Amino acid sequence: MTSNHTLISRFPHLRRDFAASLVVFLVALPLCVGVAVASGVPAELGLVTGIVGGLVTGLMRGSSLQVSGPAAGLTVLVFEAVKEFGLPVLGVIVLLTGLLQVAMGLLRLGRYFRAISVSVVEGMLAGIGLVLIAGQLYPALSAKAPDSGLGKIAGLPGAFLDAFGDGGALASLAVCAGTIAVLLLWRHTPAKVRAVPGPLAAVGLATLAALALSLPVATVEVRGLLDSVQPPPLSAFGELAGAGLLGTVLAFALIASAESLFSAAAVDRLHSGPRTQYNRELVAQGVGNTVCGLLGALPMTAVIVRSAANVQAGARTKASRVLHGLWLLLFAALLPGVLAHIPVPALAGILIHAGAKLVPVRALAALWREHRGEALVLAVTAVSIVAVSMFEGVLIGLALAVLKTAWEASHVRLEVVDKGAGPVQAHLSGNATFLRLPKILDSLESLPQDRPVRLDLSGLHHLDHACRTALRNWAARHSAAGTEPVELVTAA
């Protein structure tokens, strides 16, 4: 009795954290496996990343309730990296990503990720969601997916037509559709039933149906935990000489860090506990990715689905996420054979559902009504990711966001008051930069040539050199027409 009392006094939230850890484990299990399979790597590597996210990153300071693991948001990038460089080099990429994140955290750059345009991040996630949905429809149809994002989308009509004459493809599609249906309907079930997380219920029911009906569908290939963990060989580090690999590392680091820190901001809104320390969280994510790289596993990010489940299940401290990593380790060590019965189209259904959540259709419609520039940045970023690649798409989105900001920052207004007698009063206000110079000159040159002009510049917050020179030249030309010299009024 005394020992129990001592344990409770030392860990007052242990009961809540223990219960929350089981919920997070049940949510994380199918997602870890599904992300690994979709990324083109052994299923066990997804579990390894989930274990590291719990036992390593989970112990570190940063965000107390945020849960880390393999994320659907990096699936497309990982698949492309494995296809281009091979699985052994993936460990090198993830290792360098982790070291770069640690360096950024130590240099206190974490807070700067909060300055990234929300439209770019949402566009990035929407692009990933579209490619993820298109890519996972192929395993749902027992077909091989094309390599490019545009190829995946363009090939879907043909893949569906081919499936209608193939019994195995139709069975696979039925399992995928059934999994998605369970996920959509699960929140309408009684509260006691909802104690089982939707993703686990959907995969469990799909597995039972496939076994009971002997459906001809592909299942997860199992290699065993120790066989799957392959630290990168020294020869894999030779790829560092190529610019392509370094660009991939940079893409992993930027996207994983942005997704983790945006997730942290979202999780902070869900609870009233300690706020996220962004630089420490970036270091924690980096240490986790460094360990994952050494083990040859998938990269990790903080994942909003698991983190929200953790908060909603009543977690109070980091103990819940550490314990969820322990449950994943025990499952991978003691029950790996269970994975071999999971139908691949069921995992495809999980990821199609996750991908659909990444595409903010309603938010985009509202954004278009209120802030069309932001909506354009979001849409262009998403389309660029689908059409070109993840890294280039994000760069295009960032460049467009910077241009949009520069354009808006150069907003200038010219008010003209002409009372019919005396000088024409022209008042410039805002930020006069070279971006708006054509508009300013067009307006000034439309003023009457035979009237004196008083140009008031006192309302300008900024006047760059190009505008200052152009205004002086305009004033000289206007005065040369035989009227009184233009009166320039500047701030005191």
From TrEMBL:
Subcellular location: Membrane
Record key words, sorted: Membrane, Transmembrane, Transmembrane helix
Keyword check for Methyltransferase: no
Main location: membrane
Matches recorded under Pfam families: Sulfate_transp (PF00916)
Domain SLC26A/SulP transporter, first and last residues per copy: 14-381
Listed name of the protein: SulP family inorganic anion transporter
Biological classification of the source: Bacteria, Bacillati, Actinomycetota, Actinomycetes, Kitasatosporales
